[in-house]
Amino acid sequence: MYCTLEVDSFGYFVSKAKTRVFRDTTEPTWNEEFEIELEGSQCLRILCYEKCYDKSKINKDDNEIVDKIMGKGQVQVGQRDKHIVKHNMCATVNTQV
Q1: Does the predicted TM-score (pTM) go above 0.85?
Q2: Positive or negative, the Cα torsion across 78, 87, 15, 71?
């Protein structure tokens, strides 16, 4: 499992950071920090993925393995927050298998 941090840019979300991948656990704990430029962005989105190692799950369009989205969240960015923000990724994610 891993998480990505994305910001919106001209109607699309762009990935700005990714945590390390935890394998064989349903309760990963991250303690990572990222600096993200938010100028011009309205939202910060966090997506959690289950890493797929099964080669039978290949996307037919681009021939790549697709990871499964396990959860997502979004934070609105205020005017005073639109400078470089240091985001501390301290999260514990519990999932039911």
Answers
A1: no
A2: negative
Residue 83 token pair = 């400078």
Question: Are 22 and 1 spatial neighbours (Cβ–Cβ below 8 Å)?
Answer: yes
Residue 50 buriedness (CB in 10 A; 0-12 / 13-18 / 19+)? middle
Q: Report domain extents, the chain.
A: 2-92
Q: Are 44 and 82 in contact (CB under 8 A)?
A: no
pLDDT above 80: residue 5? yes
Stronger pLDDT, 52 or 33, i.e. the higher one = 33
Q: Is the confidence at residue 96, as pLDDT, over 80?
A: no
Residues in the chain: 97
User: How far is it, in rounded angstroms, from Cα 9 to Cα 94?
Assistant: 30
